[in-house]
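Most newcomers find our protein records easier to grasp once they have seen one. To make this concrete, we reproduce a full record directly below:

===
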Amino acid sequence: MQLAYTAQGFATAPRESRGLNEPLGDAGMINNRNPWCLAVAGTGVAILAIGLLIFHPRPAEAQGSTPKYEVDPFWPRPLPNQWVTGSVGGVCTDAQDHVFIVNRRNLTDNELDAAYQAPWVIEFDPEGDVVNSWGDANVLGSGRHACYVDYENNVWLPSNQDGIVQKYSHDGSKLLLQIGTRGIVDSSDGTVAGRALNSSHTGFYRPGGIAVDRGGGDVYVSDGEEPGSNHRVAVFDRNGRFLRQWVLHRTKAEMEAGEGDEFMQVPHCVAIGNDGLVYVCDRRGDRVQVFDKMGTFQKDILDICRGRGAQPGG
């Protein structure tokens, strides 16, 4: 089963059409004129998904087949204990096709009159039944934006209102690794009100997405989920030691047009493909940018809804 979250509900496609352990990020946007358009702007979305085929293609996909989605309005099944979620900040899947959602718990008082806040993280089986839930507000960072299940079945959560990334055991019972310190961001005064420094080797400023390289366990973080925060891809080893970073690519023409400044750079999400390349959502550029693992720019995958296809660097 491949799953994407849309404004109409969850859409699923056969498991054979994707690889394992893909992050789905924010809600995928469906363009009325072309449902396969790549929409990376606006609500930020981007499913780095892009159907997820780009990142985890199978042999059939390499020959041009495309997964088709059909909305299942009855998935998931009703939540237990009168739970209601707030905004769903991210969706990811594990190797058993279990689906994890991260819940922002931002219900209003009126909504709570007839319901209870659902837990921060909820795990569903493929049929849509809740099989586990977890999350401690005293341990989690501020803000839910995405999740990622790595090749060792660990669950990663970035805190997009904070300066940390956390790695949990699959059942959420143990915090295995934290990069950064809760309540401190990579800014001039250590708060989200400060000027982004984009330079910390020990933390972040509104990290929005995570990918883990199954080749050696290096952790790639899209650090800077909103304009005015950091604007880099930061890479750490499996133990949380800083390795390198880079920023989004801008052409000379874009720089001259003012599109290269820090406010315009929003690396919203990140994924690593089976081709070994790193795919980064350029939220303000309406595109995905492709880099090698050392940060060397390879090409743009542009918004095909605007009639632009993939272009090499330049």
